[in-house]
Structure formats: structure tokens, C-alpha cells
Please model this.
Amino acid sequence: MLTFLSAHARTLAPPGRQSAVDLTREAAAARDAADPLAGFRARFTGTDDEGPDRLLYLDGNSLGRLPVETPAAVARVVEQEWGRGLIGSWSSWIENATRIGDALAAGVLGAGPGEVLVGDSTSVNLYKLLVAGAGARPGRDVVVCTADDFPTDRYIVAGVAAARGMTVREIPVDIDGGLDPAALREVLDERVAVVVLSHVAYRSGALADLEGITRLVHDAGAVVLWDLSHSAGSVPTELRAAGADLAVGCTYKYLNGGPGAPAFLYVRRDLQEQLRQPIWGWFGQRHQFAMGPEYDPAPGIERFGVGTPPVLAMAAVEVGVGLVADAGIGRLAAKGRALGALTVALADEWLAPCGVALASPRDPARRGSHVTLAHPQAWQLTQALIDRGVVPDFRTPDRVRLGPAPLYTRFVDVWDAMARFRDLLAGGAHERYPAERGRVT
Ligand SMILES: Cc1ncc(COP(=O)(O)O)c(C=O)c1O
Model:
């Protein structure tokens, strides 16, 4: 069923390629010394070990690190607001979803006040907005997604289409290079209601042209729903400038909100009143505490809420969003590109001779903040790297995904991780690991 997969990753460096980056460890250390974001590293737990055997965490694109401030912020909500304030604290909690949503909108997503709501999971938010978007295009019966989108996105698209009698058009994509807008253009016609796409592809890190694709979808009269899970906190999204309709994303990756942290949704302000989401909960109700007999959706972004928000988890999200907003998404994206470029250059130099190939776009401007490498023994390599204190993750079919989150990862961390990767390949210790895959998260 992997027929759409590109016939495997290209070899790393094209012959004769000279790295434009100085690849010494000293040069990496000099870049850290000049890094305007360097001070943020100390604001994360577990970053104080400077030893040569320290943990090199390159999985910030799966689960971000714990901010130092978070335990106290959560404890404050537990001990003071819940412990002492009890039900009286609801007057402040009730604002959480929109207050943190506004901070996320302004500091991270490039959206306006009242356009972002925090709560539920990415999957549930995707479901709500997909149904709402499809409802806004009556008479159209097609949902478009890509053949290589994150599984939850494809499953929800399939489920919504089945429930509404719609047809799914899956666009074939190059799993390393990402979406080709020409392939999207080919499937757009007057039957298409909603197009669901990831801004940064989960497997390769390929970055889609959010503004250009939004325009393309609008020209076809359809609604676009972006999954920003791998972009929020790593690259600018500028939803308002792009005129994007709908978006969802998670807060546990580059936003460092913690495991299972509530997700977010974005709905462009002028669309909010036209849209009806399918889960008619009391947190989406106009006068919630009037306890009225019938559902009457709230006028703004709150109509996309459902039930009681996870108050304790929200406290962690607020800290994570604040850190990213303070760092500035422009500076984070620039550092993320530079860390990625160093990863690719070192892979060209050290890993390519051992059969490792780049499985991401080579141009840093076409990537989010993660880089993916392909090798037939990617599973064994991932396990062996973890045992050597380097944490990437494995992705099917044969990929090692490296996500050096720019907020707390240094250039020397990338250098040291790649050096351990090089030594592992040279020594061949990964060959002794079983080929069968355990649980893949
Ligand atoms: C692109 C993308 N969408 C959605 C999700 C997950 O959604 P949920 O938080 O509902 O599990 C992920 C998780 O890694 C993801 O990478």
C-alpha cells in the first residue's frame, strides 16, 4: 500500500558537493556563543548536563521538553486555585481557552484575537472543523487530503466522508519532497468542499506554501483546513496574512505543553458565524449558565468549544506558549533552519558513505525544523542511537527523524549527536539489534 512512496530517498550529497558550513565542533560552539536564543535553554529541565555522555534529545517534534516554570505553574493551579479557591476559581478558568488562544494567535500563529481556541485534541478539533467546513459548502461532495498525511488526519477525513456520503480524493505526494501544488491543482474542481493539508509534513518535514495553496483552494471555491502540529512554534504560519480558513494543531511538540496537552483550533473571524461544528456541547453555547432548553451557538470562537476544559493541563500550555512567543517565531524558524542545515551537512559528510540518504527537502527554506534520514536498518539504528543517548524517532518505512527543537537545542548538540551516529554506523553495533519493530510512537 506504499505505492505512492517515492522510490526511495536520494543519496545524500550530490557528487562534488562541498559543504558551505564549517563542520568543526569549534564552529558549532561559536554559533552557540552567538545564538540570540541561547538563554532559553536553561529554562528547560534536563539541559544542565554538559558531560560528553549527556542525553542528546532530538525529538522535540514529538514531545517537547519540560519548561522549568511548568511544575510551579501547575502546582499553583492545583494548590491555590483548586485547593483553596475551589469552585470559586471557575471565574478565571472559564477564560483559559480564549485567553491562551489569543496568546497563541498573537505570539505564534499570526492570527487575530478571538480566532484561536485551546482545548480538545488535534484529532477532535480536526473532526469539528472538517464537518463545519463541509457544511459551509452545501452541494459539494468531495474532501481532498494527501496520501501521506498523518494517519489521524486521513482517518478522520475518511470517517467524515463516510458519514456524510462524500468522496475522498487523495493526492499522491513524494514522501520526501512533500506536496506539489500542481498535483493539488489537478484534483480541485467545483465538487471539492474542503482540502485538509499539513503545513509541515510529519515524516519528511517538507514545508507547504501556506499562502499560495490557500489561494489555490479559494480559487476553486473550497475551504482549506491546515494541520499545524509540526509548524506551531517552529515556523511562521501567518494565518491572517494568508487568509487561511481553518487550522488545528497540537501543543505538546514545539510548544512544550506536555504529554496529552490540549490542542488548538483556528477559525478565521469572518467565517465563525457561518460555521456550525457537530459537537453541540454546553461550552459552545451562547449563554452557558442560562441552561437553556436548546443549543444556540456562541457568537465567536467559543462556539467551537465542547465541554469542560482540562484546567491543569492548560496551565502547562500557557507556560509553553509564553516561552515560544518570547523567543519569537522568526528567530526560532531561522535557528531551526540553521540546525537542520548543519544536520544535513554532517549527514552528507559522515553518514552518506555508509548508505544513509536524505529523506527531506534539501533546501532549508522548504523544511520545518526536522530532518529525516533514510537507511534500510533505520529501526535498528534508532534503537541503538537511543541506547547511546541520542533520541530521534523512527518513522515508516525506513526513516530516522531528527527534530532539534530550536528553543533548547544547541549546534554542539547536533554535532555530538551526529558524531555518535557516525561512530555507530562505523562500528556496526546496530546490526546486533533485532529487525522487528516494537511499539512505534
Ligand atoms: C500532523 C499531526 N496531526 C495530528 C497529530 C496527533 O493528534 P492528537 O493530538 O489528536 O493525537 C500528530 C501527532 O504527532 C501529528 O503529527
Observations:
- Residues 1-9 have pLDDT under 50 and may be disordered.
- Residues 10-65+328-432 form a domain with the Aspartate Aminotransferase, domain 1 fold (CATH 3.90.1150.10).
